[in-house]
Each structure stands twice: as structure tokens, then as C-alpha cells.
Amino acid sequence: MKRTRIKTILLSEKALDTVLIKGWVRTRRDSKAFSFIELNDGSCLNNIQVIADDLLKNYEQIKKLSTGSSVCVKGTMHESPGKGQKWEIHAIKIKIIQITPDDFPLQKKRHTDEFLRTISHLRPRTNKYGAAFRIRSKLSFAIHKYFHDLGFTYVHTPIITGSDCEGAGELFQVTTLDINNPPLSDEKSDYQKDFFGKQANLTVSGQLEGELFALALGDIYTFGPTFRSENSNTSRHAAEFWMVEPEMAFCNLDEDMDSAENFIKFLVEFAIKNCDQDLELFAKFVDKNLMNTLETIVSKKFIRLPYTEAVSILKQSGKKFNYDVFFGADLQTEHERFLAEKHFKQPVIIYDYPKTIKPFYMRVNDDEKTVAAMDVIVPRIGEIIGGSQREERLEFLTHRMAETGISKDDYWWYLDSRRYGSVEHSGFGLGFERLIMMVTGITNIRDVIPFPRTPGSIEF
Length: 460
Hints:
Blueprint: H1 6-11, E1 19-31, E2 34-40, E3 48-53, H2 59-62, E4 70-79, E5 87-98, H3 113-117, H4 127-149, E6 153-154, E7 160-161, E8 173-174, E9 184-185, E10 188-189, E11 200-202, H5 207-217, E12 219-227, E13 240-249, H6 253-274, H7 276-285, H8 290-299, E14 303-306, H9 307-316, H10 333-343, E15 348-354, E16 370-378, E17 382-389, H11 394-404, H12 412-419, E18 425-431, H13 432-440
Parallel strand pairs: 3-5, 6-12, 14-15
Antiparallel strand pairs: 1-2, 1-4, 2-3, 4-5, 7-11, 8-11, 9-10, 12-13, 13-18, 15-16, 16-17, 17-18
């Protein structure tokens, strides 16, 4: 007999034939000749009540079931007289797969996020984290649906790379050399003897490779893991995280901003429509203002603001910031959140940043002081998308590379893309974990990644 998921049962308009469900016991209580089992199989937030009577052959064993125990139940659906549930299962047969020992750490009480991070292998069994990771799964699907429906091509860019897209140098090195006794050349590691014959790293972005495909296939996107060895323990940074990076040929900065806004609105609306039950949990227990925030994102056109105006607003706000604000300063999270949460009270797109604080590949504006860059800022998160129109002019690109200390020899292939059939093109990167934080109200990035990788933490 085929297994039926609890979500299917709960959504059913009429009683199904005999059902077979497999799952884990959340709670159990006894009442005279019956045992009432709350069962969950991970398919949805709600449990289903299973009623086991003392006519079952293994009833005495059933009475020993504890939280976390696993069972297989064959039974019939009946309308439930209890509040808050439409159906219940009257057990015909219960097969006990395993009875969990009494030291199971997830008992029926609220646990702190800090504690649950120490048992990341078990925390998906809680209501909060089960809901978070179901939303993560559905939004992954939504990302692919969005770009597929628009005719984008999905490109797999390399995880191991010889380039540093951001020029920040915060890279994880990949090597087969003996780190305790590396071969040396002029007192430095001889990478010619390494696996790839040169220094290799884990990627911080698939953008540069994505550009090459956009200049061949038109509109493309990448979606995969990226890595940064920044020694940061903030609630917004992780060493391993996922990025969505579309790249669009024949696209200028205005069109890039349109695309970013439409993308965010689509994903939030998708979550509201398809993750309503799980979102309800977060709106009730995590962020009381969550649904208002999400509805604002969907309903209001994003404010578009030049960087110079953003700096002026911040200077004139009268608010004391931890970081000074001036032209040429990289806006910090406190600045971004003030603009989105306090000043405008809605999402903001800031554009035309000083070229001195942006990477070499961004298109230089006519003022030669700023570049065609943009960031999408949302309440509670700050920056959720960073993007730009790419520099398509070979002479400008080589000049910017020289200015920022980027080797033309190392990026000969990137320069070729401007030498042969170059066109204006733009793109952006969305931090997937920050999207999940925005949609759920969760405030720490460690709680939206199944197994977070942060400084000093790689237990699981």
C-alpha cells in the first residue's frame, strides 16, 4: 500500500480509503482504553491525531511510544470532533519502527535558537525549523520557475575558480599540496606543482563566468553555493551561502533595477500564496509585523535613490550612526535599514555609487566618479540584492583593472568577451539566505541554513 502524506490527508475534502502514514510521534497521551498520538511526517506544520484502541495486538507497546519515536500507521479517516482539525485517523494497525530513548533532546517545550544550533542535525524536527526549511525549498523552486517562465537559461558556473570576482581577497584556497611541507619557489609555495598548476580557490560569485554565457545565450542565471573566508561572526554573514545571479544581455541599469524589483516581488508573493501555513507560524511567534512587511514589499513600487541623495538624507537625519556618512563611504547596514525602515518605510534601490568602493567590472558613468551600480535595500535586512551594469567598453575595463590592481593576464578570457561582440549587459546577485530571513522574520543567518558554516564552526 502506498504511503499517504499527512498534508494530503489534511487538505482532503472527503475521507480517503484506508491510508498508510509513516512519521514521528510529537506527543502521546492515554485515556482509558485509548491512546491518542500526535503524528507528523514533515510534509506540513500540522500533526494528525491517530487514535489507537486497546484492541490492537501491540497496544501495550504503543503505550510506551515517546516523543521522537517512529511508526507506521494503517488506518481509516474520520471527521474529527476536536477543535482545529478536520480529520483524524483510527488505527487498524500500528507498526513501531523505533521507540526513542528518554534522552531525546527535543521534548515538548520551547528551545532557544542557540541550543538548537548545537544540534543542527535534529533541529529540522522542530516546528520552527521544519517550517523554515520547507519555505527554503519552495522558494528554491520559485526561483527556477521565475527564470524559466521568462526564458532564461540556467548555467552551472564553477565552484573552484582561479579568479576573485570581488577583488576582496577573502577566499578559501583549494590545494592538494602538503600544507606542512609545500614545494617552494623563491620561498613561496610553488603552485605549478599543485593540482591545477596555479593557485585555486572556492568561488565568491559565478558572475564573471555568467557574463560569458549571457554574451552568448542572452539571459541566463546561476544559483548555487558561494564561499567567503571573511572572519565575521555577525548575524548576517556565513562562510558558505547560496547566491542567485541572473545576467542579462542588452540590458542597462534601469532595466536591471526593474528586473531586481520584479524578482523580489514575485518571490514574496509566491511565499504568501504557497507557504501560508508556515508563514503563519513566523508571523505569530517570530515577527508580529511580518505580514505587513511582506505585503508592503509586494504592493509598493520601490523607491529609487541616487547614492548622493541617500548620503544627504542620512547626514540630515539627525540620527547618530556608529559609522560616519560621507561621499565615498560604503553604506553600512545601519544606514540602509534607517532608509528602508525609518525614512521611507519601504524597499529602496540606491544606485550610482562612487567607483572607489565598487569592483572593477562595473560600468563607469559619464561623471567618471560613479559607476552604474545598484543595491536593493529592504526593511529589517538591509541590502538583499547588489547589482550593476557591467563595463562593456574594453578600454574602460582595462583602465579600471589597472586602477584596482587586477591582472590583465589572469583575466585574458574576460577581456576577450569585450573584444569580440561586446554589448551592454547587466546583472545582480541575491543572497538566498537573506531572502529567507526577510520572508520568515528570522534574524540570524545561521538559522536559515541547514548546516551553517561560520568561523570556528564546522561540526556537522
